[in-house]
Each structure stands twice: as structure tokens, then as C-alpha cells.
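User: Can you predict the 3D structure of Uma2 family endonuclease? Sequence below.
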Amino acid sequence: MILATEKWTYSDMLAKLPPESRYEIRNYHLIDMPSPTEKHQELQFKLTLLLGNYIVSHKLGKFYQAPLDVILDEGNTVQPDLLFVSNANKDMIKERGIFGAPDLLVEIVSKGSIIRDYVEKKEDYEKFGVKEYWIIDPQNQFIQIFSLEANKYIPYSSADGEESLSVKSIVLKDFELKWSELFE
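Assistant: Sure. Here are the predicted C-alpha cells for Uma2 family endonuclease:
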């Protein structure tokens, strides 16, 4: 939900809002981020274990959970559910957040975030150069992975429990997520 018509920047957000606030900025508009549901939290926890353990055991980089600011530019700040920054890009990690496009972002869709996750964030992550974007849709029990090729997202891997049983990542070489690990 967009809160105000005034122009917001990341600097404004830091100066005017409490540090523990859950807000994002899209095209200089402040957006309120409601608390996630229990199902959302359950999926986020499962993904944290699966992705986090893989990233740590293979020493690939840093893995984070929301809320953590990802500052794409001064007028676009997001708090993705999960994110990965490779060792090669670790310079973008600062105390206050991630400054630039992480290698991989994950959004877990809620009833109030369908358009935001499937359309707006997909467009933004593509525009700012996030190499891989995952959409986890609990209501439809669907996993979709998009890969950035020639500055455009292409569907790379998906699983819905019927046609396919797992998804694979390009960014996390040899990582495979079974649909049943999230939705069974």
C-alpha cells in the first residue's frame, strides 16, 4: 500500500522513520510492508535452512532474511524475503544494508503482494540487474525462477507439484529445490 504522494528517498527513510520500520520505496513512493503470515514464515524458514545451508557449506557468499534493506538506488529500496550476495559482490554489503543488486532475491507471495511480487518487483529486479529472481507462491503451491539474460528475465525453472518435481538455480550451481521440501 502506497502511503503518501510525497517523494521519498532512502535518505529520507533513514531520517524520518524508526530503524525497525518495514517500508519499501518504489519510484520514490513509500510502501508499507505488513507483517507476514504464519504460512509465509514457515516457508521462509524452510527456504532459509535449505538455501542457507547450501550457501554456507559451499562458501558461496552471504545469505540474509528480511527485513534487510536492499538499496537499488536512492528512490528504490526493497526488503526481499531472502537474498544472496556472492563472494564476488561482497563489497555491496554495508552495515545498514545491501547497496546494489544482489545475485539472487526470493519473494514469498501473500494475498496482498501478488501484483507487487509478480509484476512490480520482477520489473524492478530485472531493471536493476538482479541475476536470479525466485517467486514462491504458497496459495498456488508454485515455485518460479527467472534468470537474467541480455538484461531481460526469462523463465528458467518452475515446479507446481504436478508437472515438475523440482527447480534448479543458475546462480547457485548444482542447487536443486524439490517442490515437496516446501509444500508437502
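The CA atoms of residues 73 and 100 lie 7 Å apart. Helices lie at 10-16, 38-57, 114-128, 179-183.
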